[in-house]
Write a structure and sequence with these properties.
189 residues; alpha+beta; 9-stranded mixed β-sheet; 3 helices; 9 strands; globular
Length: 189
């Protein structure tokens, strides 16, 4: 009897960390936007760097699994929260992606800037929340391009001049067009 229990515990000790690693344990969002928090179930990134201005990387987090497949379909889901961080570079040739990205609108004097959207769909596909970032910084500490691409970093953002949101991302590449991310947040089913 004790050997069966021991085998079960050993199996769980292997399975639980493996399951958690697929959830993106480095993906956190602390704080609320318009009273809505986000408990991240899945997060991915998209590479829209093409060698021409502007170069973009997008991080997408959600409280729903199957995020990459949803982006490939280009359709958002009801009763789902999405959090997008966009990183842009305006210099040619593109230098290293790592570094700090500051939220600035229409300021082409800086090389690296960020943009972010926090959005929640309700059961009727109506937006409960649809807020754009007001100010803040995103720090990209690691970027690896290619099919096994990885992005890691932190963010400290302010929405509505009062709603502080900070956290981290540790995401892998979703092989889908970055333009589909914007389709996802504007098209609900």
């Amino acid at each position: 009897m004790h050997t069966s229990i021991g085998r079960c515990w050993r199996s769980l000790a292997v399975l639980i960390p493996a399951a958690l690693s697929g959830c993106g344990t480095g993906n956190t969002v602390e704080g609320k936007v318009d009273g809505q928090a986000l408990s991240v179930r899945e997060a991915v990134f998209f590479d829209q760097s093409t060698g021409t201005d502007p170069e973009q990387l997008l991080v997408l987090m959600s409280d729903r699994p199957g995020l990459c497949d949803a982006v490939k379909a280009g359709t958002g889901h009801i009763e789902t929260t999405y959090f997008i961080i966009e990183l842009d570079q305006l210099v040619t040739p593109i230098g290293p992606w790592t570094g700090d990205y500051v939220v600035k609108y229409f300021d082409h004097t800086i090389d690296k800037f960020a943009y972010s959207v926090f959005q929640r769909y309700e059961a009727s596909c109506a937006f409960n929340i649809q807020d754009s970032v007001h100010s803040g910084t995103v720090s990209l500490t690691e970027y690896k391009e290619g099919p096994s691409g990885v992005m890691r970093g932190t963010f400290d953002l302010l929405f509505n001049e009062t709603d502080a949101v900070k956290g981290s991302f540790d995401v892998h590449l979703c092989n889908a067009p970055a333009a589909n991310v914007w389709s996802l947040i504007w098209n609900c089913q």
